[in-house]
Design goal:
8% of the residues lie in helices and 38% in strands. With 333 residues, the protein is mainly β. It has one domain: YVTN repeat-like/Quinoprotein amine dehydrogenase (Methylamine Dehydrogenase, Chain H, 7 Propeller), CATH 2.130.10.
Length: 333
């Protein structure tokens, strides 16, 4: 077993800086009044939200995204979401959209069936506390429900099952309830259990992707390869013999990973029926521009996307056979 002593978390932090460009921007936001929590919406309320969103979701201004902290297809929208330092950007029907307000610095961003979870820091001048802790939105980011550790923790890495709301966080710094390590919540943040990770033999933690329908199953991409757990992290085993895996994402029937092998960047499909692995054709990427996030649309089979360290974003609608580049070095024109 490789040592996971005092250097373990520090090595993990190096990965945070390399792959996600995260920053602990404590100057953003204030500690004024909280906004109210979300409530379940009736059909009439949903229609009213749609009308209001005509002013909230607007065409994106020309800009360059410098840091991206997650991509995904939420179940309550048909857009591809990109979480950035300046709020959420949405790609829909060939056009880029953004929010007119609530442009928070989202980190640990994760889409789910009814919206998204995130962490990070509020935008400058916001009444939200800094850091955000673990929050959720079901109205495209207009309002945020405080799930846990509001004003206390910033989770750079976290994940969630698309359907059953099982949450995972990698906690870098101890807070009032959690020490350092990986924790799982099966009741949407009310209680947490540390993952024992028996069998884990990598030097660092990495990105976590949870199966959309089986919240106890997750994959972790690390600098030492791919690891998979099927019991919420009680045990975990290495899958394959990959030198390094920079990103992973589940669809309903497959796991997509991006390994680096002999300086070559790949996108690989691992079918859950045991067939494969299948190397998917992708545009040529430089060795210093690895894939940092992969997204698979749970609602639309074959629709998927990936973004690189230099914020080149590609999307496919045919299961990865062909790709369209929709961001070049983060530039929205």
């Amino acid at each position: 077993m490789k040592s996971r002593g005092k250097g373990f978390i520090s090595l993990f932090l190096v990965l945070v800086l390399i792959f996600t460009g995260c920053s602990n921007d404590e100057s953003r936001g204030t500690e004024k009044e909280d906004t109210p929590k979300e409530e379940k919406r009736t059909d009439g309320q949903k229609q009213q939200e749609k009308e209001t969103n005509d002013d909230f979701i607007i065409p994106a201004q020309p800009q360059t995204l410098e840091h991206v902290h997650g991509v995904g297809y939420p179940g309550n929208d048909n857009s591809l979401y990109v979480a950035s330092h300046e709020g959420i950007k949405m790609y829909k029907e060939g056009k880029w959209l953004e929010t007119s307000s609530e442009k928070h610095d989202y980190m640990g961003f994760q889409v789910v069936e009814d919206g998204f979870y995130s962490s990070g820091h509020p935008e400058k001048g916001s009444k939200l506390k800094n850091p955000l802790g673990l929050v959720k939105s079901v109205d495209f980011g207009k309002t945020l429900e405080k799930i846990a550790f509001y004003g206390e923790s910033d989770f750079h890495f976290m994940s969630a099952s698309f359907q059953d709301r099982i949450l995972y966080v990698i906690n870098e710094k101890p807070n009032s309830e959690l020490g350092t390590g990986i924790y799982v919540s099966k009741d949407e943040g009310k209680s947490w259990e540390q993952a024992a990770l028996k069998g884990f033999d990598a030097q660092t933690f990495g990105m976590i992707s949870v199966h959309p329908e089986k919240g106890g199953t997750f994959a972790m991409s690390t600098k030492d390869g791919l690891y998979i757990s099927e019991d919420s992290g009680k045990t975990i085993t290495e899958a394959g013999e990959y030198e390094m895996v920079t990103a992973a994402a589940f669809s309903k029937n497959a796991l997509f990973i991006s390994p680096i092998e002999q300086q070559e960047l790949k996108l690989v499909k691992l079918n859950q029926d045991g067939t494969g692995p299948i190397d998917l054709p992708i545009p040529a990427l430089a060795a210093d521009n690895p894939i940092t996030y992969i997204a698979a649309d749970i609602k639309q089979d074959g629709r998927m996307a990936f973004i690189t360290y230099q914020n080149d974003l590609y999307e496919s609608t045919d299961g990865g056979k062909t790709w369209k580049q929709i961001l070049v070095k983060g530039n929205i024109k």
